[in-house]
């Protein structure tokens, strides 16, 4: 058994979602892919996959083994690229993940410029509002918003964003403008679940100082994307709380107003993170050197000051 070939078949089957699609991607027969995975399981003495007519599901052992296979295959691919001259010429597939709206507004344009500058480089951008495990899921780098847990990843800070409360001028004209966080209890709240958890919003003490304040809010409408929360607020349906970059355009054109600025908490950091052992690959070095300054410039141009005294 060629173990590298079998690992490739195993990983490709998971990426493609079926043994048949893996066979098409690798230019082999479905029987050959099935045989390679079966030989790998026989060699290991354990089952890696549960197969059905519709899908493949990893066993608990398969989940652990998949992460190791990805790391081994990534190391081999990097060795091949380095030997072929990739140390000076970025090439191959660069895979990056970022939050949906931030990625669409800021990361995608920077990566478009990157692949224009390096024609031998291909890029894949996964936009999801969750923390993606880079090595397990086969990505080179990620953009993350918020405070980072301790990990083996290298983190490069590119800026910061704010949590802001906002509403439309029409809504405020009808229902009044809250002047302190406690006033929110009398207002209609649109909750963005990725930012507001357990219907509690935390604020700073404001100009008077003191401890942070938590305010319970009763949401009349809860959504799981910032776009939906912002659109509802702009239509005058209520007050929402999102991240500052997400409402930059709506605030600039007057559809939304930012409220309670004196009570905002500390800004949230934005980082580019990546495995340190991968930085030797020219594609990742090119991403860090090319995209990080552009993200810093974009975030620096956003209004960050909260207006607090």
UniProtKB/TrEMBL annotation:
One of its GO terms (molecular function) is DNA-binding transcription factor activity. The keyword Disulfide bond does not apply. InterPro entries: LysR-type_TF_proteobact-type (IPR058163), LysR_HTH_N (IPR000847), LysR_subst-bd (IPR005119), WH-like_DNA-bd_sf (IPR036388), WH_DNA-bd_sf (IPR036390). Residues 1-59 form the HTH lysR-type domain. It comes from the Bacteria. Keywords: DNA-binding, Transcription, Transcription regulation. Transmembrane segments: none annotated. The keyword Nuclease does not apply. Pfam families: HTH_1, LysR_substrate. GO terms for biological process: DNA-templated transcription. PANTHER family: HTH-TYPE TRANSCRIPTIONAL ACTIVATOR TTDR-RELATED, HTH-TYPE TRANSCRIPTIONAL REGULATOR. Belongs to the LysR transcriptional regulatory family. This is Transcriptional regulator, LysR family. It comes from Xanthobacter autotrophicus (strain ATCC BAA-1158 / Py2).
């Amino acid at each position: 058994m060629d173990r590298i070939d079998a690992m490739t078949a195993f990983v490709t089957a998971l990426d493609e979602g079926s043994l048949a699609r893996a066979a098409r991607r690798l230019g082999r027969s479905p029987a050959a892919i099935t045989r390679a995975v079966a030989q790998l399981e026989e060699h290991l003495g354990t089952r890696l996959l549960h197969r059905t007519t519709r899908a493949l599901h990893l066993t608990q052992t398969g989940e652990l083994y998949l992460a190791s296979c990805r790391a081994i295959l990534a190391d081999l691919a990097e060795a091949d690229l380095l030997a072929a001259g990739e140390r000076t010429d970025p090439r191959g597939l660069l895979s990056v993940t970022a939050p949906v709206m931030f990625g669409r507004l800021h990361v995608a344009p920077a990566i478009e410029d990157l692949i224009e500058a390096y024609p031998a480089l291909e890029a894949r951008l996964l936009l999801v509002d969750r923390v993606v495990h880079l090595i397990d899921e086969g990505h080179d780098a990620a953009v993350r918003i918020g405070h980072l847990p301790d990990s083996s990843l290298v983190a490069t800070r590119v800026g910061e964003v704010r949590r802001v409360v906002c509403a439309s001028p029409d809504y405020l004209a009808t229902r009044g403008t809250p002047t302190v966080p406690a006033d929110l209890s009398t207002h209609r709240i649109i909750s963005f679940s990725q930012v507001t958890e357990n219907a509690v919003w935390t604020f700073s003490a404001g100009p008077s100082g003191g401890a942070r304040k938590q305010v319970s809010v009763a949401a009349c409408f809860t959504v799981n994307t910032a776009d939906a929360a912002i659109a509802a607020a702009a239509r005058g349906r209520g007050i929402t709380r999102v991240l500052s970059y997400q409402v930059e355009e709506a605030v600039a054109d007057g559809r939304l107003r930012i409220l309670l600025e004196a009570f905002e908490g500390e800004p949230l950091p934005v980082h580019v993170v990546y495995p340190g052992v991968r930085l030797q690959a020219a594609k990742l070095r090119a991403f860090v050197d090319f995209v990080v300054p552009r993200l810093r410039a974009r975030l620096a141009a956003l209004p960050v000051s909260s207006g607090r005294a």
